[in-house]
Amino acid sequence: MPLLEKITIADFRNIRLQELSFSPNLNCISGNNGEGKTNLLDAIYYLSMTKSAFSSSDRYNFRYGTSSFSICGTYRMQNSLESRFSIQVDASGEKKVRRDDKQYGKVSAHIGVLPVVMVSPEDISLVSESGEERRRFVNSVLSQMDREYLSALQQYNRLLQQRNRMLKDASVDRDLLSVFDSRMQAYALPVYEARKKFVENIRPVVSGYYGMLSGGSEQVDVRYRSDMEKGGLQELLASSFEKDRLLKYTTCGIQRDDLEFTMDGWPIRKCGSQGQQKSFLVSLKFAQYEIMKRTCGFAPMLLLDDVFDKLDMNRISNLLSMVSSSDFGQIFITDSNKVRMAGVVDRITDDRAYFETEAGEFRLSGDPGEDLPEGD
């Protein structure tokens, strides 16, 4: 599995210039809120996914007063050889992604080379926001495991944009539209089937992790909802033509797919407490990790941002037992309370590194547990 040995970050968020070397096992980053902990994890995520885990636009990723940023990482790959990956982005939107100084022909060709799973407080949007957030989650997982899925999704979205432009014309050529419908059907089907299979695979894993994390106090489930459950896309598009023409956009298709999260049969966003929702989201991401590990044949990198927030000590203890008892790979954890983090991490492994951050500057620190009074 790829292990991040060293990263160099320039002008990303509040990080001016930083070079850090990491433990192949567990890396703990502490600091007050707003100092840069999450930005470091997002830089690592960006190096894997070629985009931020949080910002849809790169203009929010430039350090204030700058017009470009770069991230470079040295990884130990599965064959034990080192590879160097770099990403440069400027204000024009141009993005250059390189492996060993050779630029990719397409940025998307890099997706899946460095598999990653990130757990953060922002995951609450998966429960509270629209289906777009949940589709983005599914796409981020499947794109890392299946290049054909990513290609089909990109082609479908391109045709969808063209179809929507045609629907805005005063006179819509229905014959030409039917040609687009046929082509969209060809790309929609593999996307639909991949999403359906993914949800079937992840459902029992989410339930199992939630049971371990919560002590089995509630039952959770994940369901897939798609227009294509009703039939082929081409037929659905033909039947919705008049509605589409009036509204001037495509009203059915895989762009409307959604996931349904429930607890004891009820929508978790309505009946779940903050702690229960957080436990569910952690379980969902750990299940993502498990599915990706099975498919890739090795453990992805795991980024845990402020994961202890809103979890009681029993659930924190259960969470860390899950991490320590499974074949997890390289892990990065952030927490504002470095003593709390050390108290938990030191029970898992001696192979860990501690970092502290202030105003976007990071330094390797000693074991915070050493500062505790004897007996604590």
TrEMBL record:
GO cellular component: cytoplasm
Any GO BP: DNA synthesis involved in DNA repair
GO molecular function term, any single one: single-stranded DNA binding
RecF/RecN/SMC N-terminal domain: residues covered: 4-341
Alphabetical keyword list: ATP-binding, Cytoplasm, DNA damage, DNA repair, DNA replication, DNA-binding, Nucleotide-binding, SOS response
Subcellular location: Cytoplasm
InterPro entries: DNA-binding_RecF, DNA-binding_RecF_CS, P-loop_NTPase, RecF/RecN/SMC_N, RecF_2
Main location as per UniProt: cytoplasm
Binding, ATP: G31, N32, N33, G34, E35, G36, K37, T38
Range of residues in the leader sequence: none
Function: The RecF protein is involved in DNA metabolism; it is required for DNA replication and normal SOS inducibility. RecF binds preferentially to single-stranded, linear DNA. It also seems to bind ATP.
HAMAP family: RecF
Family recorded in the similarity comment: Belongs to the RecF family.
Entry protein name: DNA replication and repair protein RecF
Annotated organism of origin: Candidatus Cryptobacteroides avicola
